Automatic annotation (TrEMBL):
Annotated signal sequence range: none
Coiled-coil ranges from the UniProt annotation: none
Organism for this UniProt entry: Chlorobium limicola
EC numbers: 2.8.1.7
Statement: the UniProt record of this protein carries the keyword Transmembrane: no
Protein name, entry field: cysteine desulfurase
Cross-referenced PANTHER family: CYSTEINE DESULFURASE, CYSTEINE DESULFURYLASE FAMILY MEMBER
Record-linked Pfam families: Aminotran_5
Family membership noted in the UniProt record: Belongs to the class-V pyridoxal-phosphate-dependent aminotransferase family. NifS/IscS subfamily.
Function: Catalyzes the removal of elemental sulfur atoms from cysteine to produce alanine. Seems to participate in the biosynthesis of the nitrogenase metalloclusters by providing the inorganic sulfur required for the Fe-S core formation.
MF terms (GO), sorted A to Z: cysteine desulfurase activity; iron-sulfur cluster binding; metal ion binding
Length: 398
């Protein structure tokens, strides 16, 4: 059996998106061209823009298509430095940025880079469930703060933040608010007006669309500085000939989410509940990470002390099951997850964690298969580990 439980890393194309992309594959016109080929491409790009805008309650001209969620996040953070250096006429932004310790690396590493370029960056703590400390935010907000960036849903543990409340606090102090909503859009209702955000990040491949395309919501009237310069595309907000097929795929993915999201997310939540209960019943000495209720319906992060996350991943892979570990394997690093550490989990428990993320193709049979394989896998790894004593060193760390 082949089981893909890594939907927070990326998702398979929705069959309808795939169909539309195959049909559109011959569309090669440049949307900037005025002839028929160009107009066809332009019409498709603008159609996708309306869909994306409509899905989050934005106006069409508040949507900028970009190359990825990472690019959207880089754009917002870099815009800030650009604005504080008065690159945008008439705008002098304040010099501090606030973000959180659990952001995606594309926010954290960009923030570190900005700190080297003169910005003051402050990082918010989270509680044991991964919720941002609002008292700490209130204390940090002052007239030096120009921008606050807090993710809406965490990719590793699924915890949701109260973005509307945070936006309100941020605006009261006169700063701008950005949220990385890559894991939220298409899974929970997102309305930019209700959230009160100035910038919001979307990525297509996390919602059954193609890779290498995303969208950035930029509220009307908000200072803006392009990250990629040298072209009039996207009203001068993102240079470079548009990824027409990618954008078309994003539009279709959003359309399908609009139709399926509500029922689908309920289905995932009930599968997760069964998975959670099954793990609890069949495996000793486990800990669930993330918020017990305020969480993405398909995301389950669990720690198995005495079993390395990488070992679990590889043994499950041998059985045809794909999950992920919190540690940033992609960067070749074996550091424990920064997200789990921020929630106060110790390094050993963080190392013994896996993320199971369900998606629209996940089935109950797959959940049952996982509940059959996982207990054996954990037992096998723990039996091999001389260091593991149940309730020993781990009991003390509870
Ligand atoms: C995947 C992800 C990103 C990056 O999006 P890409 O389109 O892959 O660059 C950013 N933030 C979060 C929360 C993510 O899950």
């Amino acid at each position: 059996m082949k089981v893909y439980f890594d939907n927070n890393a990326t998702t398979p194309l929705h069959p309808e998106v795939k169909k539309e992309l195959i049909e559109a594959m011959g569309m090669f016109g440049n949307p900037s061209s005025m002839h028929a080929w160009g107009r066809e491409a332009r019409a498709n790009v603008e159609d996708a823009r309306s869909r994306v805008a409509g899905f989050i309650g934005a106006h069409d001209d508040e949507i900028v298509f970009v190359g990825s969620g990472s690019e959207a996040n880089n754009t917002v953070l870099s815009l800030f430095v650009c604005a504080s250096n008065q690159c945008i006429p008439g705008t002098k932004m304040r010099s501090s940025i606030i973000t959180t310790k659990i952001e995606h690396p594309c926010v954290l590493e960009t923030s570190e880079c900005l700190a080297h370029r003169g910005a003051r960056v402050k990082y918010l703590n989270v509680d044991r469930y991964g919720k941002v400390d609002l008292d700490q935010l209130a204390g940090m907000l002052g007239d030096d703060v120009g921008l606050v960036s807090v993710m809406m849903a965490n990719n590793e543990i699924g915890t949701l933040q109260d973005i509307a409340t945070i936006s309100k606090m941020v605006h009261e102090c006169g700063a701008l608010m950005h949220t990385d909503a890559v894991q939220a859009v298409g899974k929970i209702p997102v309305d930019v007006a209700a959230l009160g955000v100035d910038f919001l990040t979307i990525s297509a491949h996390k919602i059954y669309g193609p890779k290498g395309v995303g969208a950035l919501y930029v509220k009307k009237g908000i200072p803006y500085c392009p990250f990629i310069r040298g072209g009039h595309q996207e009203r001068g907000r993102r240079a470079g000939t548009e990824n027409t097929l990618g954008i078309l795929g994003l539009g279709k993915a959003v359309e399908m989410r609009q139709l399926e999201m509500e029922a689908e997310e309920k289905r995932l939540a009930s599968m997760k509940a069964i998975l959670k209960k099954g793990i609890e019943e069949r495996i000793d000495d486990i800990y669930f990470n993330g918020h017990p209720t305020d969480s993405l319906s398909g995301t389950l992060n669990v720690s198995f002390p005495g079993a390395e996350g990488e070992a679990i991943l590889l043994y499950l892979d041998l059985e045809g099951i794909a999950v992920s570990t919190g540690s940033a394997c992609a960067s070749g690093s074996l550091d424990p997850s920064h997200v789990l550490l921020a929630t106060g989990v110790d390094a050993e428990r963080a190392h013994g964690s896996i993320r199971i993320s369900l998606g629209r193709e996940s089935t109950m049979q797959e959940v049952e298969y996982m509940l059959d394989i996982l207990p054996k896998t954990i037992k096998r790894i723990r039996d091999m580990s001389t260091a593991y004593i149940k309730g020993g060193t781990h009991a003390a760390s509870r």
